[in-house]
Design brief:
This protein is α+β, with helices and mostly antiparallel strands. The chain is built from six helices and 14 strands.
């Protein structure tokens, strides 16, 4: 082995070792220095020139190959951690939702006016089938409704939203299925109403009805064939009604409240100082009343 062979072997070894990692910036300069320091034999002018040119060409090829490997994420490089955009992401404008509502979300309930069809004896008929009023509606029944701590023959069925709770058992002072809430609750034995209750049913023994607010608007309806009045009541400071209130008065025993009336009637109401909560509960109340089925 001559000096040139040794130099060539040294260059090849150098290239193999350095190509195991990133190509160093000084690689080309080192190779050129090695070429310039090589002692050439006296074989005329052609051999030293060809040898130098060959070495330079080999070095250039190695550099080009190394640069290609680097650019392609080969030896000595880390793969890119940023994924290329997919077709769906590229085609969707930023900030534009693909679907604004999921399948599990229920649509916003429509106003109660949609539950009214035709004209009845006492006004527009306020009527909805339970399956139209609520998705997966729950239905409960009141039998022998309690009025003034005494059982009567009054009875009815009413539907309410899935997931809501009601008092399932009667007590001495309250009929079952007369309190409704969007969360579980325990009904006390007396006539107190838990704060979580959103809709309350009462059965006054008769007489007139005074709304107790600053003012009230009224609408007359026919509910399951009997007369009904819907009160939308504005509260009054220090008065009986301190929050916005909606009350349905239904002549379940045949007569609406009036002076001298001796028949009990049904009062179903909701109230809240929170406007959003009030709107939601009122919609539920209106739909419940539309499902009312009064017993014979």
């Amino acid at each position: 082995m001559n000096d040139n062979d040794a130099r060539d072997q040294e260059v090849r070894s150098y290239v193999r070792n350095r190509m195991a990692g990133d190509i160093p910036p000084e690689f080309t300069g080192n190779v050129m220095n090695q070429v310039q320091r090589t002692n050439q034999r006296n074989r005329g002018l052609a051999w030293p020139i060809l040898t130098a040119l060959g070495t330079i060409a080999a070095a250039a090829v190695v550099v080009i190959i190394g640069l290609n490997l680097v650019n392609q994420g080969g030896v000595g490089t880390q793969p890119s951690l940023t994924p290329a955009p997919t077709a769906s992401a590229a085609s969707t404008p930023s900030g534009t939702p693909e679907a604004s509502a999921s399948a599990s979300e229920e649509p916003t309930p429509s106003p109660s006016a949609e539950a009214t069809t035709g004209e009845g004896e006492f006004g527009p008929i306020h009527l909805m089938a339970p399956e139209d009023a609520f998705a997966n509606a729950q239905t409960c029944e009141v039998t022998d409704a309690i009025v003034n701590a005494e059982p009567t023959t009054l009875s009815w069925q009413i539907s309410f939203p899935e997931g809501w709770s009601t008092n399932e058992e009667s007590t001495e002072l309250r009929s079952a299925c007369t309190l409704f809430a969007p969360v579980p609750f325990e009904a006390p034995d007396d006539q107190a109403v838990p704060e979580s209750v959103a809709i309350e049913t009462d059965i006054p023994p008769g007489g007139d009805y005074q709304h107790g607010g600053a003012s009230a608007t009224t609408e007359e309806f026919t509910v399951d064939g009997v007369a009904a009045v819907r009160y939308d009541i504005e509260p009054t400071d220090g008065g009986f009604v301190s929050e916005p209130t909606v009350v349905w008065i239904i002549a379940i025993a045949g007569n609406l409240p009036a002076e001298g009336n001796d028949q009990p009637y049904l009062a179903i109401s909701t109230r809240s100082a929170d406007p959003d909560e009030m709107a939601a509960w009122t919609d539920v109340l209106d739909r419940m009343v539309a499902t009312l089925d009064i017993g014979e």
